[in-house]
Structure formats: C-alpha cells, structure tokens
Amino acid sequence: GQNIDQPTEMTATEGAIVQINCTYQTSGFNGLFWYQQHAGEAPTFLSYNVLDGLEEKGRFSSFLSRSKGYSYLLLKELQMKDSASYLCAGLDSNYQLIWGAGTKLIIKP
Amino acid sequence: IAGITQAPTSQILAAGRRMTLRCTQDMRHNAMYWYRQDLGLGLRLIHYSNTAGTTGKGEVPDGYSVSRANTDDFPLTLASAVPSQTSVYFCASSDRGGASVDEQFFGPGTRLTVL
C-alpha cells in the first residue's frame, strides 16, 4: 500500500532550527512535495524534490533520499509566523499526490 | 479572479439534501482535484480531472460526483448528504505536463457540516 508517515506535532523555539521528517511508500515515485498550511487556511507549496540531495530556498531546505524513502524539511531562524502544519506528499506513478496527515509545528518565544 | 475560488465558504446542510460545491480557476490549468481534509487525517482525494471532458475517481469517491465541462470549472456534487461527509473540502489545480513541477494550487476551502 501507499503510506506517508510524519510526526503529529513538534515544538521549537523562536530563532532555532527544526527538522521535520517524512518517510514515504508510494507505488512508483515522481517526487516529494512539502506544503505549509496555517490553521483555517489552504495548503501552500513550499518545495519539491525528485532527485537525491538538498534543495535550499531561503530559510527552508528540503532533503530527499530515494533509496531510504525519506525526506526532511529543515526550517532555520524560526519565526512565530512559521507556526503551522507541514504536509509531506509523495507523487505516485499515476501522478497522484499521497498525503501525510501533517506535522503541527508550535513555535514558542 | 486570481487563482482558485470556491463557493460557498461554509454551509450547514440537512442530511439527505443535495449540495454542489463550486470551484473555478483562472490559471488555465489542465488538471483539477477535489480533496477532503479531516482532523488527524491527510488530504484525501475524492475525484480528479486531468483535462476538460475527463474525470477520474480518487481514494474516497463514494457519495460524490464531479463534472468538467470546461477548463475553468470543476463542481463537486453530494447527491444525498450524510453526516460522515462533514469535512473541509479543498479544490486544487495544477499545470500537469507543463514546465512547472506540477505543484498544486489550492482554493480557500469549503467547510461543510451535515446534520
């Protein structure tokens, strides 16, 4: 079956670094997405990885290891506005996204 | 219009009633999707359309139907609503096969309560 696993909730301190892990199992693989979703709002695109390695985009970076079925999202210099849920999603062989339940990130001052 | 719009924003519906959730995009994306999001669960695909005139079933299609008469509109119909269909519904679109990474753009959502 297809499955995306990520922690339910994480807590971090403003200004610190946090890493949100995601493991995936999909029928075929066409890439791994990370989305951010603030409470009561729609998900918005953060990053896409299809090759192994690290993709950096400002304070956010995303890493992929296809052999391990593993990805992480790294958030640096945390700000209060980063409090949100972070959704990991794998793109399967039919180009359908398989979504994790999301990781709720709580930032404390 | 810029992006994707959904209507209504929220709705309370009696069980057994018919309801259509509307979704319109102005980005000329070929692919569109309907998801439901429930607490503790990931987004679950209800139906999708890869191009105007075609539709497909997702993970949880029972009790729902869709149509795609043109590129811009992708309505979702609940023929006879049941309480288990209480959820937040998101419409999304993507430029499948285009130059982008096929990221999906989401509408603001419709919060539906079936009593």
Description:
- The complex is a heterodimer of chains A (109) and B (115).
- With 109 residues, chain A is mainly beta.
- Chain A has strands spanning 3-5, 9-13, 18-25, 32-37, 44-49, 53-57, 60-65, 70-75, 84-91, 97-99, 103-108.
- In chain A, the strands form two sheets. In chain A, strands 2, 4, 5, 9, 10 and 11 form a six-stranded mixed sheet that branches.
- Helix content of chain B is 0%, strand content 44%.
- Chain B is built from no helices and eleven strands.
- Chain B has strands at residues 4-7, 10-13, 19-25, 31-37, 44-49, 56-57, 64-66, 76-78, 87-94, 105-106, 110-114.
- Chain B is globular and about 40 Å long.
- The N and C termini of chain B lie far apart (32 Å).
- Chain A binds chain B through residues 4, 31, 33, 41-45, 48, 50, 87, 89, 91, 95-102, and chain B through 40-45, 48, 58, 90, 96, 101-109.
Quick take:
Chain A is mainly β and 109 residues long.
Helix and strand arrangement:
The complex is a heterodimer of chains A (109) and B (115).
Chain A: E1 3-5, E2 9-13, E3 18-25, E4 32-37, E5 44-49, E6 53-57, E7 60-65, E8 70-75, E9 84-91, E10 97-99, E11 103-108
Chain B: E1 4-7, E2 10-13, E3 19-25, E4 31-37, E5 44-49, E6 56-57, E7 64-66, E8 76-78, E9 87-94, E10 105-106, E11 110-114
Parallel strand pairs in B: 2-11
Antiparallel strand pairs in B: 1-3, 3-8, 4-5, 4-9, 5-6, 7-8, 9-10, 9-11
